[in-house]
Design brief:
The protein has helices at residues 3-14, 50-64, 80-86, 99-106, 130-137, 159-177, 193-199, 208-218, 240-243, 248-263, 265-287, 301-327, 334-341, 344-371, 381-412; strands at 23-26, 37-43, 68-74, 90-94, 114-117, 142-152, 189-192, 223-230, 292-294, 297-299. It is α/β, with parallel strands linked by helices. The protein folds into 2 domains: 3-263, Spore Coat Polysaccharide Biosynthesis Protein SpsA, Chain A (Alpha-Beta Complex), CATH 3.90.550; 266-417, no CATH class. A hairpin with a 2-residue loop joins strand 9 (292-294) and strand 10 (297-299). Helix 2 (50-64) packs across helix 5 (130-137), helix 6 (159-177) packs parallel to helix 10 (248-263) and helix 14 (344-371) runs antiparallel to helix 15 (381-412). It starts with a helix and ends in a 26-residue tail after the last helix.
């Protein structure tokens, strides 16, 4: 930090202008009115690049022909926020609590109907935001930038990220979601203010990127990818990854993996659970009639116990997957449909009948055991029937509990579909000449 920066920071401390708790919104004298677009940028000690970045934003706003505001969410201990405010930008001072938290704190202060996010380090080219605006005006609700469809300057992206981390995680997420993203960790992205509000972001750090992508799929947002330019860090600037040490990329990767497992829980549970349940039930049904062979492989009671375990685990995964899907159902329709399908009377009668059938199927094995003075009899057809009956009783109990869990979720979950809607801006939101659009 230069001596001038140190002096500036000390002055900020003396005047108590660095931050307050929780936020402090500073509005410049010349402020944009009724913006169509908000450029939302978290910053942490970016005084080296913030001036040039604001100039880039002005170029991008003029080229796109929009009325826009630039909202800097600043957690800096240097003069980043002061420079931005002096250049006529809104500055929201917050405590440094993570990148994701910066976006969360900023949501109530966003005025534009469309929000473009990114970094102030001049690695993302904010001179070219028109493709984002065009996609929004065409009806897109979520516009992802893609470095891989655009250009990546030499040395701009570490080899570990470019050739392993980002492609691998993007592939896994696409496989899980059935989506077609090419760059899930691109920091330059846009979405409607309505979508951002309804998302209710929770991630405090790097993992916000994964949460946002997963929730966009849960919300079934109209999604478009646009190519972007990605540049190397400015001379003399260290990225936040490098500032925090060599282990930070691994920590960020772990945080994003945790977010994917959390917000994509239903995708991990439902399809694998259905497959496991189907395989387990198939072998249970076949082995209920006694041992059989497939070529040189003989299957008997031991194989049936494995089938019992697979079917039980699969059913549990399916039920858990549906619960997770309800938790992330932004249409508020799945819970009601499932509650109707599992009505109390229908579920009670079905589970009682399944349990009764299971006990009846187990009865010959129980009688045989009692006839051997409570000693387990030799494995025979009664053992096979008993294993099937045991699964029926277990499945009936799981289903009964699941049905009441669905009803409980209907009582406690908020109704996201009833949140206030914000009209899609479109071209009607643009007014004024070019000199007024900043």
């Amino acid at each position: 930090m230069s001596q001038a920066s140190v002096d500036c920071w000390r002055e900020c401390v003396r005047s108590d202008r660095i931050w307050s708790d929780p936020v402090d919104l500073r509005i410049p004298a010349l402020d944009a009115g009724d913006p169509e677009v908000t450029i939302l940028i978290p910053t942490l000690n970016e005084e080296l690049t913030i001036g040039r970045f604001v100039d880039w934003c002005h170029e991008g706003i003029a080229a796109a022909g929009i009325r826009a505001e630039i909202l800097i969410v600043d957690s800096s201990s240097d003069c980043t926020g002061e420079i931005a405010l002096a250049r006529g930008r809104r500055v929201l001072k917050i405590r440094p609590r993570g990148l994701g938290r910066s976006y969360i704190d900023a949501v109530p202060h966003v005025r534009g109907r469309f929000v473009i996010m990114g970094d102030a380090d001049c690695t993302y080219d904010f001179r070219v935001i028109k493709p984002f605006v065009d996609a929004y005006r065409a009806g897109a609700e979520f516009v992802m930038g893609s470095r891989f469809k655009g250009t990546i300057a030499p040395g701009a992206m570490p080899a570990l990220h470019r050739y392993l981390g980002t492609p691998l995680m993007t592939f896994l997420l696409n496989l899980m979601l059935g989506s077609s993203f090419s760059d899930i960790y691109c920091g330059m992205r846009g979405l409607t203010r309505e979508a951002l509000t309804r998302m209710e972001l929770r991630s405090q750090g790097w993992e916000y990127a994964s949460e946002m992508v997963l929730k966009s799929v849960h919300m079934r947002l109209a999604t478009v990818e646009v190519p972007i330019h990605f540049f190397k860090d400015s001379e003399g600037r260290l990225s936040h990854m490098k500032r925090r040490g060599s282990l930070e990329p691994w920590r960020a990767g772990f945080m994003n993996l945790r977010a994917i497992l959390t917000y994509g829980l239903d995708f991990f549970l439902l399809k694998p659970g259905l497959a496991l349940l189907a395989v387990g039930l198939a072998f249970l049904a076949l082995l209920s009639f006694g041992p059989f062979s497939i070529g040189a492989v003989s299957l008997a009671a031991n194989a049936m116990l494995l089938a019992l375990a697979a079917a039980t685990l699969g059913l549990s995964m399916v039920f858990s997957g549906f619960i997770a899907r309800i938790l992330f159902d932004y249409s508020d329709t799945l819970q009601a449909r499932m509650e109707a399908a599992l009505s109390f009377r229908r579920t009670l009668i079905g589970c009682l009948l399944a349990s009764l059938a299971g006990f009846l199927i187990m009865l010959p094995w129980v009688r045989s055991s009692l006839g051997h003075e409570a000693m387990l009899p030799a494995v025979g057809i009664y053992t096979h029937w008993a294993i099937t009956g045991l699964w029926l009783v277990s499945a009936a109990f799981q289903t009964f509990v699941f049905a009441f869990m669905i009803r409980a979720l209907g009582v406690v979950l908020p109704r996201r579909s009833q949140m206030p809607r914000i009209a899609h801006g479109g071209a009607a939101g643009v007014s004024g000449d070019a000199s007024e659009r900043e």
